[in-house]
Design a protein that fits this description.
Length: about 450
């Protein structure tokens, strides 16, 4: 039996070798090959858009998909600490707390009618389970039972079995039976062409054929991301969501939009669907809502969806939720994050800085192994010729003090929205230096 000292939590300034050894011996890392060692880059603290490892080395953070206010923002830290000391949690299936309605109202204030009713859960994956239960339940309540879903083959709606069943990405494959019939839409054009306006009719035609594929089994929902993140950093043509809205209205399907990644400023707008002037029937948001400080996700539906659940035969409502749904500390973190977004004009700055970074990198498209340079808000994507080339960029960037994301052959720079001009310029310099042509 291990002694108490052997299992005591690691001190803040523990021996780096001990910290790494514990990781290698006992941690099962998410989405990681067995045998891979993730302890080589182990972080201890961060501030703003800079993060530091066990050896005291500094990096620019360009890989945090949920970082809106950056690290250690004093207003968010204060809100989390104060709420944890006041009331950290209640079961919102039986009661409520004072921040729950405040956050739901705040989210509704950013969205067009009829979106105004929010269910809170802990992650985007949970959010999509709830959203699809809403869609299928909505059809049943109208006396027109449907369960089929239309989605992007390269989409990603989370890690649950239900979410994985909405994707053809290799990492999402699973050995279980899919809980719903799904019709997947392949990209009709390469990503570098798909973002152009002339691609819109081609893409909408692909979705229309999928929606009408089985007249005897019309879809309950069309589920899309306005930017394919895990699917390769794919920017979609302007007007796509508006076209889908019209298609769904004509066929009786609900439009479910996945803004888990794009919402709360990342796309250069509070919500990406606002760019097309579209109100989906259900909108799922998560990552940027509390900036990664505490897990939370929001599933915001139209009143027409909400009211239909009075007809549920068991409880007269949506049969979905978790013990920590609507967690009070998470709500406090989210409200503080939204305050910072507004006070520091981070949504507008995301668009400005993203354009600035993209403009400095645009000349690289078609040079060497860089196939394309594209962006949405403060997400800059360099599509490489191969996955191997993309992996090389990530490795060289990390060695040069820059953290990046990779989705297939796409390298993505996703810095915190609080990054300043100097940090954005330095990110571009280090990214450029990491490209194969810079070797």
């Amino acid at each position: 039996m291990a002694s108490i000292d052997a299992v005591r939590p690691t001190p803040r300034h523990a021996d780096p070798d001990l910290v790494r050894e514990r990781d290698r011996r006992h941690v099962w890392h998410t989405w990681t090959p067995v045998g891979a060692d993730r302890s080589g880059t182990t972080f201890t603290h961060a501030d703003g858009y800079r993060i530091f490892d066990l050896d005291g080395r500094e990096y620019i953070e360009g890989s945090a998909l949920n970082s809106t206010c950056g690290y250690a923002h004093p207003e968010v830290v204060r809100a989390v600490a104060e709420q944890a000391g006041r009331l950290h949690q209640v079961d919102v299936s039986m009661t409520s707390h004072d921040l729950l309605g405040a956050l739901a109202e705040r989210i509704a204030s950013y969205l067009p009618a009829p979106l105004g009713r929010t269910l809170f859960v802990n992650s985007g994956s949970e959010g999509f389970d709830a959203a699809l239960m809403m869609a299928v339940g909505h059809a049943a309540h109208r006396g027109r039972p449907r369960s089929r879903v239309v989605a992007f083959a390269r989409g990603y709606q989370g890690a649950t079995i239900l979410g994985r069943s909405l994707s053809a990405l290799p990492r999402c494959r699973h050995p279980m039976t899919a809980p719903l019939p799904v019709t997947l839409v392949d990209l009709p054009l390469p990503p570098r062409e798909l973002r152009r306006p002339e691609a819109l009719p081609v893409l909408l035609d692909a979705f229309e054929r999928a929606v009408l594929a089985d007249p005897d089994d019309p879809p309950a929902a069309v589920v899309v991301e306005p930017f394919l993140n895990v699917g390769g950093g794919v920017v979609l043509p302007p007007g796509f969501l508006a076209g889908l809205r019209a298609l769904c209205d004509a066929t009786g399907a609900l439009l479910v939009v996945d803004e888990v990644f794009t919402a709360y400023g990342r796309a250069g707008a509070m919500f990406c669907c606002a760019r097309d002037g579209v109100a989906p029937d259900v909108l799922v948001s998560s990552k940027g809502l509390a900036g990664g400080y505490v897990p939370i996700a929001a599933v915001t539906a139209g009143e027409h969806v909400f009211e239909g659940f009075a007809a549920d035969p068991v409880i007269g409502g949506l049969r979905y939720g978790h013990t920590t749904s609507g967690h009070a500390v998470a709500c406090a973190a989210a409200l503080a994050t939204l305050d910072v977004l507004e006070k520091e004009n981070l949504v507008e700055r995301a668009e400005t800085l993203g354009a600035r970074m993209s403009a400095r990198l645009a000349h690289l498209a078609g040079v060497g192994e860089v196939v394309d340079v594209r962006r949405l808000g403060l997400v800059v994507v360099l599509e490489m010729a191969t996955e191997e080339a993309a992996l090389g960029v990530l490795d060289r960037a990390r060695a040069g003090g820059l953290l990046l994301r990779r989705q297939g052959a796409a390298v993505m720079a996703v810095p915190p929205l609080v990054i300043d001009d100097a940090g954005a310029d330095l990110l571009v310099e280090r990214l450029t230096a990491a490209l194969p042509s810079a070797d």
